[in-house]
Design brief:
Distance between the termini: 19 Å
Strand content: under 5%
Radius of gyration: 17 Å
Order of helices and strands: HHHHHHH
C-alpha cells in the first residue's frame, strides 16, 4: 500500500495500520524514511509562518529558514529517537512486550500520519497568524498525534486489534 493510502487509513483505524506495518518485518530504513519524510513535511509547514514573520518584522527569510532547517531536519530526528527510546522503556515498565523497533514505529508513524494537520497548522499560522484558529488547529494536531501514537503503542506492545 502507498504511504498516502496508509496515512488516510490511519485516520480510520490506527491500530490496523500499525499491525500491518509490523507484519512487514523489522526494517530500520523504513522507519528512517518515515521520520525524515515527516520532518521534511514539518519544515514545509513552517514556511508560511516564517514568511509572515519575516515580512512583519523585516528579518531575513533565508536566515529564518536556515534555522528551521537545522532544527527540524537535523536536530529533531535525534530528539525523536531519544523520545522513542524513553517511550519504549516506559512501555516495558508497564508490562509491554516487544523491542525498541515497535516503539519507534509507533512514534514515527504517528508523526508522519499527523502531518496533514501540521500542514494546515502552517497555513493558518502563515495566513491568519496567532489567535484562536491557530490554537484550535494546534490542539487538533496534538489530539490526533496522541491518538495515533497511543493507539500505535497499544498495538505494538499489548496485542492485536
Amino acid at each position: 500500500m502507498a504511504v498516502t493510502a496508509d496515512i488516510t487509513a490511519t485516520y480510520r483505524g490506527p491500530r490496523k495500520v500499525i499491525a500491518r506495518l509490523l507484519s512487514m518485518g523489522h526494517r530500520e530504513d523504513r522507519l528512517l524514511a518515515f521520520l525524515m519524510g515527516a520532518c521534511a513535511l514539518m519544515f514545509i509547514a513552517q514556511m508560511p509562518r516564517l514568511a509572515r514573520e519575516a515580512h512583519l518584522t523585516g528579518q531575513d527569510l533565508n536566515m529564518l529558514l536556515g534555522g528551521a532547517l537545522l532544527g527540524i531536519i537535523f536536530i529533531a530526528p535525534l530528539a525523536l529517537y531519544a523520545f522513542a527510546w524513553l517511550s519504549h522503556m516506559l512501555a516495558r515498565l508497564l508490562g509491554g512486550q516487544g523491542d525498541g523497533f515497535r516503539g519507534r514505529l509507533a512514534l514515527f508513524w504517528a508523526f508522519l500520519a499527523s502531518t496533514p494537520i501540521l500542514l494546515l497548522n502552517g497555513l493558518v499560522a502563515g495566513f491568519i497568524g496567532s489567535g484562536p484558529a491557530l490554537n484550535g488547529v494546534g490542539l487538533l494536531w496534538l489530539a490526533v498525534f496522541l491518538w495515533f501514537w497511543l493507539s500505535g503503542l497499544r498495538e505494538a506492545y499489548w496485542g492485536q486489534a
